[in-house]
Amino acid sequence: MGRKWNNIKEKKAAKDQSTSRINAKFGREIYVAAKSGEPDPEANRALKVVLERAKTYSVPKHIIEKAIEKAKGGGEENFDELRYEGFGPAGTMVIVDALTNNVNRTASEVRAAFGKNNGNMGVSGSVAYMFDSTAVFGLEGKTADDILEVLLEADVDARDVFEEEDHVIVYAEPDQFFATQEALKGAGVEEFTVAELAMLPQTEVTLTGEDVAKFEKLIDALEDLEDVQSVYHNASFDE
C-alpha cells in the first residue's frame, strides 16, 4: 500500500515552513507530551516519539527546548487531545487529530472546514475503524531486502517493507516503534525521512478530475486550523 509519504510530507513541510506553522504545532505537541510525564524523553515514551518526529521536520532546537522548559516550569496551559472523523468528496474518509485549549472553538472550526469544502463531519467511530495505527519509517540508501533482513535478525515483525521512489518505507506495529527504530539505526541508518505513528487506511479511494481539487481544498482547510496537529485520509490520486 503506497501512501506517497515523502511527497506528502515534503509538500506539507514546505507550506508549513513558509509560515512557521510547523514550529508552532510541534511546540504545542512537545509541551503537552513533556507535561504529561517526565520532561526527559528517555523516561517519557510519548515525548520521545514526538521528538523523533520533530527531527524529520527539522524543527529548530530552540523550539524544542523552549517547549520542554515551559513544561518543566509547570506551564498553566492545558490542552485536550481530540479526534474528529468525517467524509470528503467521492466517499473519502478523513481523521483529524487536534490539541486544543478550547474544545468548542475547535469543534466548530473543524465542522465548518468540512462543511465549506464538500465534506461533512461524522460521529466518533464512523471512520477510525477503517484505519490502523501504525509506526511508519522512511529512509534512504538501503533496499527493501536489506531492511527486511535487518528487521528479521532483530526479531522485529514489520507489517510491510517496500520501496517508494528512492526511499524504503517500513510499516510496523505501534508498540514496535522504538524496537524498529533501534534495529534500523543499528544497521547504519542515521537519518529518517519519516519516523512517526500514523493512521493508515485499510482501503483507498482513487480520486480523479474535479474531485482531486475539491479534496485538496478540504485537507488544506483542515491543516490550516491552528489546533489541528495531523490529518489522515484514504485518498489516492492517479498520476
Automatic annotation (TrEMBL):
In Gene Ontology terms, what is one molecular function of this protein? DNA binding
According to the record, the residues making up region (Disordered) are 1-20
Question: What Pfam families does the database record attribute to this sequence?
Answer: TACO1_YebC_N, Transcrip_reg
InterPro entries tied to this protein? Integrase-like_N, TACO1_YebC-like_2nd/3rd_dom, TACO1_YebC_N, Transcrip_reg_TACO1-like, Transcrip_reg_TACO1-like_dom3, Transcrip_reg_TACO1_YeeN, YebC-like
Q: What GO biological process term is on the record, naming one?
A: regulation of DNA-templated transcription
Does Signal show up as a keyword for this record? no
The UniProt record lists the TACO1/YebC-like second and third domain at: 80-235
- Annotated TACO1/YebC-like N-terminal domain ranges read 3-74
CC per GO annotation: cytosol
Note the superkingdom of the native organism. Bacteria
Question: Is Transcription there in the keyword field?
Answer: yes
Subcellular localization, per the record? Cytoplasm
Which keywords fit this entry according to its UniProt record?
Cytoplasm, DNA-binding, Transcription, Transcription regulation
Which family, according to the similarity comment? Answer: Belongs to the TACO1 family. YeeN subfamily.
PANTHER family in UniProt? TRANSLATIONAL ACTIVATOR OF CYTOCHROME C OXIDASE 1
Protein name, UniProt field? Probable transcriptional regulatory protein GCM10007425_16710
Source organism per entry reads: Lysinibacillus alkalisoli
